């Protein structure tokens, strides 16, 4: 019983500790990446640029959770990954600037920007 | 069951320690690198705040001197005594040709004051709790001070104006307070990008495109590159931000500011970083830099970020109603408003070429106490000092904003109408100049004859932001041509623009005679050498 109690308390503290160090998403960095990488590519593709304000917060959350880009042919994460940034950094200053940013941090940044800039977000945003 | 629970606890424990693995491993624990204090950890901020001053009290518990420092600044006082002219200036006093004046419009205009509650002339400028820390230090981008609330944020959803059906969403001050940080382009821009009542309206070289600009829009603020914030140039000391439009630095001879070098100069000039001889490859351009402001060549056009700026505002056409007696709004093909019943006609423009003048930094304002005569000439809201010969002037780019605004033809003064406000005398609601000007002039404390006319005015705004990359700076021919950009600049000789037939003929004659002499001499030497 004593062991169980100790472990339980330890487990709770561990989870709390991990959450205390959770990454604090930077929506401004997300804004730069979204506009400079996502939009710069979308603008020339047939689909065109996508304003954050074209979807609601829930729709963006669902989109990012599903992680399906180009109707599921590839993933969103792929375009945020270090590998992708490395592949385009010679021609994309944002990819070069954020070349070493951990994938999940950058994904969180983009998510924060999309949440903020969503149709029902705090500051509905455009691509420019 | 007991064993299963123990196993679960073990798994959670391991998961938890794995999650905090970096703490125990070689890497340093995750921490914020942009601040030395994580404000989410402060108990003083872990509470519900029902008003702005409540937040300020919490801030001042630690930052004891901050409010006092703010109290000494233009951002707080909105008042400035120009030591060169002796004029008392500042938003509290000056009249412009955009929304004209803050008198009697406080509750709307002071949404851009760094304070809470300035709703009329009785505002307590000594109150520390009235200082608004969040407006400059918000990092969430969610802090808003809607016009009409005297600089107060809205913390609960509210219909405004009452009966309009428009809901202003309340904001969570606790969340915002816990995330405070350094100032940014977004915080400064919340007001400075929106001067004159909307995005890009007033300045022309500042609009929301500068929040995260490309290199082409501003080479220094380029979000993918140098990423300057406003504070990088407009460095502050004791909360006082460097740079002034009332006493601008037109000519900076002090060279680049070097650490340890004592100077009281303006750190926001180009020279403060680039020095007085900034061109390394083309030394001839440094000669230009003795007479031409950097901005003249390096800001070829303003309003370059895709957002138009207002160039003309004609208040005299305001007041029209449709057949049903309702206010009218007209827009251009891009959806920008070009006419409003409550404001009159506008002209907007993007990628605007500046106008150029000699400017020595001296700015004299036409104040509401000054007598003015209506004539064909536009009345200058601000008159710029400068000439080719005073030794202090440079050729500067300007946005010249032209307007037609109400004035008192009997007292011969500008007037301060009461425009904003959901009341019977506010012009924007009732379109009645008599009431609006009577109330506004009473509030500003100046006489009004009861007669109203309109007068043409102009106001100059030095262009200094939206610096283009060097490869997009002006080419020689932009000025060195007959009808170039500096066609109206007097007192200086500009090759090509100023060619004179007699002078040119004489010059070419000298060249011809020189060549004739050289070749003649050479021919004679060759001929005489052969003879020997």
Order of helices and strands of chain A: HHHHHH
Main sheet attributes: strand count, strand direction, barrel closure of chain B: 9 strands, mixed
Number of helices of chain B: 16
What would you report as the Rg of chain B, rounded to the nearest angstrom?
Answer: 30 Å
Biggest sheet features of chain A: none
Name the poorly predicted regions of chain A: 9-20
Structure description:
The complex is a heterodimer of chains A (128) and B (532). With 128 residues, chain A is mainly α. Chain A is 56% helix and 0% strand. Chain A has 6 helices and no strands. Chain A is globular, with a radius of gyration of 18 Å. Mean pLDDT of chain A is 84; it is low at 9-20. Chain B is an alpha+beta fold and 532 residues long. Among the domains of chain B are: 309-478, no CATH class; 500-532. In chain B, 25% of the residues lie in helices and 13% in strands. Chain B contains 16 helices and 17 strands. Chain B has helices at residues 2-19, 21-24, 52-62, 66-71, 74-77, 106-109, 134-137, 173-178, 185-192, 230-233, 271-274, 283-288, 294-298, 427-430, 433-444, 501-531; strands at residues 80-81, 88-89, 158-159, 167-168, 236-237, 240-241, 309-314, 329-331, 337-340, 344-349, 355-359, 363-365, 379-380, 382-384, 394-408, 413-414, 453-462. In chain B, the strands form 5 sheets. In chain B, strands 7, 8, 9, 10, 11, 13, 15, 16 and 17 form a 9-stranded mixed sheet that branches. The longest helix of chain B has 31 residues, at 501-531. The N and C termini of chain B lie far apart (127 Å). Classes of the chains: A mainly alpha (128), B alpha+beta (532).
């Amino acid at each position: 019983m004593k062991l169980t109690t100790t472990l339980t308390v330890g487990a709770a503290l561990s989870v709390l500790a991990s959450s205390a160090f959770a990454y604090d998403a930077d929506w401004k960095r997300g804004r730069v990446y979204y506009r400079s990488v996502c939009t710069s590519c979308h603008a020339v593709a047939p689909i065109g640029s996508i304003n954050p304000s074209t979807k609601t917060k829930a729709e963006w959350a669902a989109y990012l959770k599903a992680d399906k880009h180009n109707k599921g042919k590839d993933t969103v994460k792929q375009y945020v990954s270090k590998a992708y940034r490395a592949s385009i950094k010679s021609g994309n200053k944002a990819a070069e600037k954020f070349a070493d940013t951990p994938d999940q941090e950058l994904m969180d940044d983009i998510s924060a920007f999309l949440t903020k800039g969503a149709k029902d977000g705090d500051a509905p945003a455009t691509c420019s | 069951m007991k064993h299963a629970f123990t196993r679960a606890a073990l798994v959670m424990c391991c998961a938890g320690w794995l999650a905090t693995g970096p703490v125990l491993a070689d890497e340093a624990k995750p921490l914020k690198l942009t601040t030395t204090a994580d404000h989410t950890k402060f108990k003083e901020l872990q509470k519900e705040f029902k008003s702005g001053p409540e937040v300020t009290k919490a801030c001042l518990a630690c930052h004891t001197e901050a409010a006092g420092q703010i109290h000494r600044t233009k951002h707080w006082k909105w008042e400035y005594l120009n030591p060169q002219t002796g004029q008392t200036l500042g938003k509290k006093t000056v009249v412009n040709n955009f929304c004209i004046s803050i008198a009697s419009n406080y509750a709307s205009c002071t949404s851009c004051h760094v304070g809470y509650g300035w709703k009329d002339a009785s505002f307590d400028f000594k109150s520390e709790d009235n200082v608004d820390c969040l407006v400059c230090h918000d990092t969430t981008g969610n802090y808003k001070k809607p016009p009409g609330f005297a600089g107060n944020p809205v913390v609960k959803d509210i219909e405004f104006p009452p009966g309009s059906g428009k809901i202003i969403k309340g904001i969570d001050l606790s969340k915002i307070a816990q995330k405070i940080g350094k100032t940014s382009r977004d915080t400064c821009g919340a007001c400075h990008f929106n001067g004159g009542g909307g995005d890009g309206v007033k300045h022309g070289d500042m609009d929301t495109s500068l929040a995260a600009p490309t290199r082409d829009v501003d080479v220094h603020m380029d979000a993918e590159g140098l990423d300057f914030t406003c504070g990088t140039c407009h460095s502050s000391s004791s909360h006082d931000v460097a740079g002034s439009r009332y006493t601008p630095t037109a000519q900076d001879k002090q060279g680049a500011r070097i650490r340890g070098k004592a100077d009281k100069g303006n750190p926001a000039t180009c020279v403060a970083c680039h020095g007085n001889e900034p061109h390394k490859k083309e030394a001839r351009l440094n000669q230009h830099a003795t007479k031409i402001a950097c901005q003249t060549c390096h800001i070829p056009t303003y309003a370059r970020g895709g957002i138009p700026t207002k160039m003309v505002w004609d208040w005299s056409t305001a007041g029209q109603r449709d057949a049903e007696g309702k206010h009218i709004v007209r827009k251009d093909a891009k959806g920008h408003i070009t006419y409003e019943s409550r404001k009159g006609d506008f002209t907007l423009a993007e990628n605007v070429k500046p106008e150029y003048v000699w400017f020595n930094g001296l700015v004299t304002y036409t104040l509401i106490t000054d007598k003015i005569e209506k004539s064909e000439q536009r009345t200058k809201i601000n008159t710029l000092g400068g000439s080719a010969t005073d030794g202090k002037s440079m050729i500067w780019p300007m946005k010249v904003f032209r307007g037609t605004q109400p004035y008192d033809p009997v007292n011969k003064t500008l007037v301060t109408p009461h425009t904003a406000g959901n009341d019977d005398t506010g012009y924007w609601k009732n379109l009645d100049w008599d009431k609006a000007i009577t109330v506004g002039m009473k509030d500003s404390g100046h006489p009004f004859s009861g007669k109203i006319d309109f007068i043409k005015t102009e106001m100059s705004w030095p262009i200094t932001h939206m610096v283009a990359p060097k490869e997009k700076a002006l080419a020689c021919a932009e000025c060195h041509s007959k009808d170039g950009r500096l066609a109206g600049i007097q007192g200086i000789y500009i090759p090509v623009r100023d060619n004179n037939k007699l002078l040119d003929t004489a010059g070419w004659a000298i060249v011809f005679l020189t060549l004739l002499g050289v070749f003649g001499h050479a021919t004679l030497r060759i001929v005489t050498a052969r003879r020997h």
